[in-house]
Amino acid sequence: MTRFLKAFVFVTLFLISAGFASAEERWLTLPEPAAMPKPDQSGYAPVNGIQMYYAVFGAGDPILLIHGGLGHADIWASQVAAMSKTHKVIVADSRGHGRSTRTEQPYGYDLMASDYLALLDYLKIDKTALVGWSDGGIIGIDIALHHPERLTRLFAQAANVTTDGVDPGVMTNKTFAAYIERSGRDYKKMSKTPDQYDAFVSQISHMWGSEPAWTKEQLAKITTPTAIVAGDHDEAIEREHTEYMASVIPGAKLIILPDASHFAMLQAPDEYSQAALDFIDAK
Prior knowledge:
CATH topology: Rossmann fold
Order of helices and strands: HEEEHEHEHEHHHEHEHH
CATH architecture: 3-Layer(aba) Sandwich
Number of strands: 8
Structural class: alpha/beta
């Protein structure tokens, strides 16, 4: 084999192996959500001065899915399809997100939690399991702290309980930057105020600068059966912080999703849904 041919074969094999490696690194990707199934019920609930978009799918013991910051309910499409086979699944757009409106009232996790509790009241749901991602997980922890009687179980993924749990490198992460850009495009398509994305981001950013700020003593009072969940390549939350949360919440189960990041529900939808259902349905 000539030197040129050997070099050609080496480069080809390297490119092929690199292609396989990159294909396996799903935690670097940001897949588009699947198409949302047709809801059995949807509309706008008047809660706390806003119009909150919601949709309901399936029948059975309820599961409330709460999306992360800048996102919207349709991100949960794969989970809705899987979970609604055996459960009533409720999704909604948090205040100012997606199709829901906002007011000039400052954002806070207590306020956002009260929005979801009011939505449950509107839908006449007394108690539910809750799957929350990022801000959704924080909202779930807020409800577990202040209204545990409304929850059966809490599956909190990519959440934090103090601001120093956020990885300082997140703002330079390419996957996270792509999510922010996509969220802006989705906002323009879905929002009733499509030209106010920057104002919305500015408003919610004030909350992110100081919340959440729960102490170890506060978290130790949680009685809701809780799973603290993270992708093993989460770009936004420090692993040590995730492990700390699981250690201080009584009886919390630590679940690490393999080859997944902050956006695990999009990168590993089947595994994510199964992990949540296994925890929620455990006897």
